[in-house]
Amino acid sequence: MRRDALSQIKSSATTHAGLWLDRFLPKAGADDQTKAKASLVEEVAGLKVPELYNRVYERWKASLDQDDIMCREATVQGRMIVGLGNTSPIETSICLQHTYGVPYIPGSAIKGLVAAYARQQLGDEWAKGSETQAEKPLNAYQTMFGHPESAGYLTFFDALHIPNSSQPLAIDVMTPHHMSYQQGNLQAPTDFDSPNPVAFLSATGSYLFAIGGEKAWVTAAFAILEKALLEYGVGAKTSSGYGRLKLAPLPPDPLEQFKNDLERLPQHQYNNQIGRFIDRCKALQDSKLQVKAATFILEKVRNHPRAKDLLTKPRFTELITFIEQNS
């Protein structure tokens, strides 16, 4: 009765992909189940991202704009499937946000991937060690990921799909060729066995990764994550090439770039060029960055042979006042 009632409902622009996948499998006889499942997969893959999700994503991204959180975008190189073995009426599943039905990568999966790569590729300092007794002092692995006696230094956030980076879901197919043999029957597989295509959903597009904690450890975690995403992959079927993502390069640090350019400024060009650096200092978006940049300028000037004369000029007295007022 309920299945008959659901068959009258049609998908729309606001349809939730996860709800549709879990509840709207078409009614079919035993011989048509494969076609019914393939039809459902095709329908879910064609659903659009809810418009509300764009606003939710921007609000979530703004909440990560903190000094102790680093964010980086990563793009799927092909296809990705996280949560393939989760409970599903079509026997294959995928990790979708409960509220909006958009694919994402759980923070637990990201942490597990980084931890696995660290254990297997980075040497003795990254050994997991005893699960009941912490190292004294803690080694790098237990410091980053935690231990029953000590919380880890880092927070691994869920990686959300970046709106408009692609249609997030796609149709995929796996084709077992020897079903009888793979189900444990004694009959040996042969070239006469019939292939059995099975449709399932995979994810595409770009995702925003975020890790929070002490800057040096966050930087180290992203360095490990970058290699792990390319070499190991995240989610299911990684041995078949699924789940590879490429992190976008980090944007240049404006303060570091400012400091490097200032260091290259010859002393004989101070009078002509220092005003340009003061303008760059004022153009920085954050007052904390402005104070640090102004401090770099004053340190540079104080090492000049004519420092006493230069520091009495209005442009430098203004910098000194600005630092005192904002420090």
UniProtKB/TrEMBL annotation:
Domain of life: Bacteria
Keyword annotations of the record: Antiviral defense
Stored InterPro entries: CRISPR-assoc_prot_TM1791, RAMP_III_fam
Signal sequence interval, chain numbering: none
Annotated ranges, domain CRISPR type III-associated protein: 76-246
NCBIfam families: cas_TM1791_cmr6
Protein name, UniProt field: CRISPR type III-associated protein domain-containing protein
Native species: Herpetosiphon gulosus
Lineage of producing organism: Bacteria, Bacillati, Chloroflexota, Chloroflexia, Herpetosiphonales
